[in-house]
Design a protein that fits this description.
This protein is α/β, with parallel strands linked by helices. Helix 1 packs parallel to helix 2, helix 3 packs parallel to helix 4 and helix 4 runs parallel beside helix 5. It is about 45% helix and about 15% strand. The protein has a seven-stranded parallel β-sheet, with helices on both faces. The chain has eight helices and seven strands; from the N terminus they run βαβαβαβαβαβαααβ. The longest helix is centred in the middle third of the chain and has 28 residues. InterPro entries: NAD(P)-bd_dom_sf, Sc_DH/Rdtase_CS, SDR_fam. This is Enoyl-(Acyl carrier protein) reductase.
């Protein structure tokens, strides 16, 4: 698998899943635009990629802002001469609450980043791809977008929306040499889970058929495959990467 000569954009790639995707793409030869709202984290990922011999550049962007998203795509083209691959990873969670307890500001914040941000990113990316012969998109959804999510309604609803954007977009652009897929992570050992007490993490792992938490690299491996020519006949797929949880 090689992405030599390809330019990739990864949103929310200053840490966790996004950082793992950016690093993997760079190892496979892609020039990578790292984007985040945390400049320190994003620049650190770029430095790590460059130190390992890869090509990367950083551009801050709030994906809920259309102008910033458009500028992000323009930056990729100006910096590396094009854009061929995109991974839309930006999203936020919320504190567990029942539906009637959720404040409008909490709902709006989750929807603006996770759902609106994915839509705006796809909009800018597909416009560029349509004008330049095609491209590939992977959205980072969640198994929460495939199931009921009691007490996490905003998160679940936003991820269900990402799943719908993926499937609908894949149909809309199937004849334009644009493939759109998604990865649906289960419980992944990102910073939020890593900070939990050992007993709590063990409890999460016990509910997974494979009896371990996933790693950001597990998601990166799936995303990179979906972006590759090895998946050239794959579009509209939402791939659970969850240790078997979805079908348990």
């Amino acid at each position: 698998m090689s992405f030599t000569g390809k330019v990739a954009l990864v949103t929310a790639s200053g840490a966790g899943i996004g950082a793992a995707v950016a690093k993997r793409l760079a190892r496979e030869g892609a020039s990578v635009v790292v984007s985040d709202v945390n400049d320190e984290n994003g620049l650190a990922v770029v430095a790590e990629i460059v130190a390992a011999g890869g090509k990367a550049a950083y551009k801050a962007a709030n994906v809920a802002d259309a102008e910033q998203v458009d500028a992000l795509v323009d930056f990729a083209v100006a910096e590396f001469g094009g854009l061929h691959l995109a991974v839309n990873n930006a999203g936020i969670g919320a504190m567990p609450k029942r539906l009637d307890e959720i404040a409008e500001v909490e709902w709006d914040r989750t929807m603006n980043v996770t759902l609106r941000g994915t839509w705006l990113s796809m909009k800018a990316e597909t416009r560029h791809f349509l004008a330049n012969g095609g491209g590939n998109i992977v959205n980072i959804a969640s198994i929460a977008g495939l199931n009921a999510t009691p007490n996490l309604t905003p998160y679940g609803a936003s991820k269900h929306g990402v799943v719908s954007l993926t499937r609908s977009g894949a149909q809309e652009y199937a004849t334009d040499n644009i493939r759109i897929n998604a990865v649906a992570p289960g419980a992944i050992e990102t910073a939020a889970l890593a900070s939990l007490p050992a007993e709590a993490k063990a409890g999460y792992a016990a509910e997974i058929p494979m009896k371990r938490l996933g790693l950001p690299e597990d998601i990166a491996n799936a995303a990179v495959w979906l972006l590759s020519d090895e998946a050239s006949f794959v579009t509209g797929v939402v791939l659970p990467v969850d240790g078997g949880t979805q079908y348990a």
